[in-house]
Structures are given as C-alpha cells and as structure tokens.
Design brief:
single chain; alpha+beta; 10-stranded antiparallel β-sheet; two-stranded antiparallel ribbon; 2 helices; 32% strand; elongated
C-alpha cells in the first residue's frame, strides 16, 4: 500500500506540472510571438516484485509479478508552428513570415532568439524588445550590431533591410528547433543557428500572434481535471485499505 501511495503521489505531481503548463499557455494567448508547449509523459518500465519467506533465514524467494510505478515526464515539446499575422499601426512592430527568429542581445550579453517583434526604440535610439534587450542587425560587411534607428519613423522592406541604416534585421534559423531552450515567455537560447540570407519575408507594422489553440487547451484542462479526480479516488481507496490494515487486521 505504501508503494501505491508513492505511485499516486508521483502521478499527481505530473498532473500538477501539466496544469501549470496549460495555465502558462492560456495566460499567453494574447502574447505576440508566443509558442505553446506540451508536456509529454510515458509509463515507467515494469519492475519485478518478490517476497522472501520460509526457510531459516526467510530467504526463499517468491516472485509476485511486475509492478509499474506510475508515469514519468519524458520531455517538454515546444510548438514552433507559425502564428497568425495581425496588422498594427506601429512602425516598430515587425513580423516574420516563414522560418527564423529575431536575434537579440539579452541583459547578460547572451544571444537570444524570439518571434515576438513587438519592438520599441530606447533613449539611445536603438531598436529593443519589450524587455529592453537590443535587437541585433547585420551590417553591410556582415557584422552583427545593435540597430540604430533614432526614432520610430523608419521603414523595413520585405527582406528585412532597414532604410537609411545600412543594416538588415538579423534573422537566425535553426535546422532543429528541438534544441532551443525557453528562457522567457517568448525568448529562447540555443546553438547551431545560421543567419538567413533569403527565403524569409519580413512585414513591418505586423505582429505574429500566439499559436496557442484555445480549444485544445480547454480539452487538455478537462483531461487533467478528470485524471486528478481519478487519482483522488484511488488515493482515498488506498488510504482506507491502509487504515484497515493498521487498525483492524493488526487486532487479529
């Protein structure tokens, strides 16, 4: 019975993680460039259980059979499908149509990547993210550098070229996005990215919307709620059986 309590506790912890993940997705339905994520779980491998009884040293083994100690979290999968594009009235809003990420310089100097093109211009005239991270561009000689626009009155063509600056947006693509690590709602870090030289369309005064599917999240939440209820009933049954084993069987 103690094993059953341990197994149920592990299952409830996984359901808690799933509920937290659903909450994060739902909370970011209106966050530009947000990519939903899903927790993938699997059943643990069955383990053989045995009793040792009889014999002078109670060392006669009797195999009971296999026992599965519940489930485990395998991985958290990021969904990088393209979100819809929404027109805005701001020249500092930019969207990518196709593969690739905007490249930004985080506060610690680390290079990060995002699909959220909801940018601003800071006091130094640099294009920055909502968190204040500088958006990186590529100069004519191929060097990475912050983008100096000196105000909101600038234009970006479909290739990402920023008029009057001699720079283009640095769009980084990854052959395998599974290697990216989420470090914020819309920020990711990773290795092996290559700077795009074509094939990606940039649209100014547009934002990519979140790719969270509301109906899917509601369905997932209902499934988690039912699983919580089933585990609660199993926990109550295990607790009642353990109570009887301690209080009643022990009297015999």
């Amino acid at each position: 019975m103690i094993r059953s309590l341990t197994t149920l506790s592990n299952s409830i912890n996984i359901l808690q993680k799933k509920q937290e993940n659903i909450s994060a997705n739902v909370a970011n339905i209106n966050t530009s460039g947000y990519k939903s994520q899903e927790i993938i779980q699997s059943t643990r491998a069955s383990e053989m259980m045995s009793n040792h009884l009889d014999g002078p040293l109670l060392n006669q083994q009797q195999d009971i059979g296999g026992f599965t100690f519940g489930s485990q979290i395998d991985e958290i999968v990021q969904n990088f499908n393209q979100g819809g594009l929404k027109a805005t009235t701001s020249t500092t809003d930019v969207a990518i149509q196709g593969d690739g990420f905007f490249t930004v310089e985080a506060a610690n100097g680390e290079t990060s990547y995002t699909r959220n093109g909801n940018f601003n211009v800071n006091d130094a005239g640099e294009l920055v993210t909502q968190e204040g991270y500088r958006v990186l561009g590529v100069t004519a000689n191929g060097q990475a550098a912050p983008i100096q626009v000196d105000g909101a009155d600038f234009t970006i063509d479909a290739r990402g070229t920023i008029a009057g600056t001699g720079m283009s947006l640095m769009i980084t693509n990854f052959d395998d996005t599974a290697g990216l690590t989420r470090v914020g709602d819309t920020l990711f870090t990773g290795q092996g990215g290559t700077v795009q030289t074509g094939g990606t369309v940039v649209q100014q005064s547009y934002l990519e919307t979140s790719n969270v599917e509301t109906v899917d999240e509601i369905t997932n939440l209902m499934q988690v709620s039912r699983a919580f209820e089933a585990n609660q009933k199993a926990l109550s049954a295990a607790d009642e059986t353990l109570r009887k084993a301690v209080n009643e069987v022990g009297k015999v």
